[in-house]
Please model this.
Amino acid sequence: MSSIAPARTEAPAAAHAIPTALWLATVVLVTLNLRPFLTAIGPLGPQIQSATGMDLSTLSWLTLLPMALMGVGAWLAPAALRRLGPRRAVVGSLAVIALGCALRVAGSSAATLLATAALCGAGVALVQGVLPGLIKRQSPARMAQMMGLYSAALMGGGALGAQISPLAVQWGLDWRFALALWTAPALLALALARHALRALPGPAPMAAHASQDTGWLRQRPRTWLLMACFGLINGGYAAMVAWLAPFYQTHGWSPAQSGGLVALLSVAQASAALGLPVLAARHADRRPWLGFTLLCQIIGLAALAWWPDAAPLLNIVILGIGLGGCFALMMVVALDHLPHPTQAGALNALMQGGGFLIAALAPYVIARLHQFTGGFGAGWLAQMAAVLVVCVLVSRLAPQRYAQAMRAPGG
Model:
């Protein structure tokens, strides 16, 4: 691995500027397509199980597999970005997502659904690994706000998937077509990205790859700490996506009603993801805001475990604020660590890579705990324990120590 020290400057991006309105529209529309294929599954879980014969553990793989691929793919994103260039990377990823969604019309078997989940997860992985670095490059003065917008669009897409697909089934559409309808917005985003990103540079020349080497980031303990925080927190999101709707269906809620609950969670996530980074942008130290979001998660998970029928709508809003705000702030914190957009984007991709691999385990762990205990309560408590671990880890993210924490070997 290289021991190149973190660069402190970068050539201006003005030559590759994208008009602001077009850039905002592209970020939002592309990002809206990164979660519906996941959040549409939970509310339709019982119908999928009935049609395919999946048990809870197998059903959990429809969340576990794409999130694991998001993790692996995020690690490969910096190299793919250098070889493909940002435009081809984003457009190609959206094509893979569209293909995965379209093939769900044939999803009458567990194997087919798992294959489509893998395709969608692989496509999402590269987009998530590329966009944060592009945002830091294209919007350096408003990075925190743009990451809030990115995170809000991510959660907003989740809300759409959780609400629209079960409603489509309620209105008479076959569940397979209700999952496949997300092909259309993916193709629309593909067309917009192909147009908007044409001003960006193409693949980097091979001679430039060495100067962009970010392999030294894996040698820094701070990188692994960020992975752990991001993964344990996103385990909560994965758990909610997979099991919140089935959990409330055991309490008598219909698929559309439980899907609405997941949508409400996603709207609360989106609101917090948009608002908290803006509030935190005035302060270099993001830890007080992270502490607030972690407290919200603890309250929400405790209520799910012990008082699930006491004001569930209010509780889900509190939990959504905690999950969405923490996700956005962790993305900002990772980008804060390095001033160079390429290296900051690579660190963000590494954090996402390891983080999503950790997060992918949460739905399976909760499914297994359900099998052992006969309910979801133990799973909610296990996730609350993970949040308490993150409370300890986050205390180490003092901004005045970023430079020392990310010092390259030999630097």
Summary: The CA atoms of residues 43 and 259 lie 5 Å apart. The two ends are 14 Å apart (CA to CA). The chain has 18 helices and no strands.
